[in-house]
User: Fold this.
Amino acid sequence: MADRTLRVCALYPDLMNIYADRGNLLLLERRCAWRGIGFAVTAAGIGDAVDPDAHDLYYLGGGQDRDQMLCAQDLVEVKRDALHAAAARDAVLLAVCGGYQLLGHSYALGDEEIPGVGLVDLRTVRADGPRLIGNVAIEVDLPGLGGPRVLAGFENHGGRTRLGPGERPLGRVLRGHGNDGHSGHEGVRRGNVIGTYLHGPLLPKNAWFADWLIGRALGLAEPLDPLDDALEEAAHAGARRAAGV
Assistant:
């Protein structure tokens, strides 16, 4: 696949990058390199326009409330139309934690409401109760995998996210809290638009999911060539043990 290049747009990498979420981009780069797939990453910060046709995968990580508010305004005013156009042509968009919350209509923080980009039908409200923190494992059933798989990670969020009636969650909670602590749902997936609270970071703990994202982003009909994933499988097994699965 030396003639193929995964083109990634990292949205607000300077502001939306907590809990080691930059590791997700590093793992994508390594797994492409090991297979001879090119990798090109473009950063898009505050005020930067986004080309909806120039990237195969768009990535938005998590951030502190203040940074999230800055990015939310920019998402709506500068990048919204481009991201909707990218999603419409089936580009992959992965959003983690705070980025996940911004995929929907709004994130209510007390009397203040942070606008979302509206790619999916969901709303998030900062609850008065305790933060939802801990190791988490979910069961997902994604196209092309031939059956359910487990995603394992870590969650730490004060928001409670509720999906609209037409949306499907990314997965079913096996251990942990998920979107709101009681629905049994975690994340959201509409086509190639994916949001999740799992980080810590997500992809190094679930290398198989990174491969699935690469394949979807490149529009591949066949699975990627396998790699020697002994270390990656050990990391995944450790994350599952930490979650009690």
About this structure: The longest strand covers residues 132-140. The domain at 5-243 is CATH 3.40.50.880 (Rossmann fold).
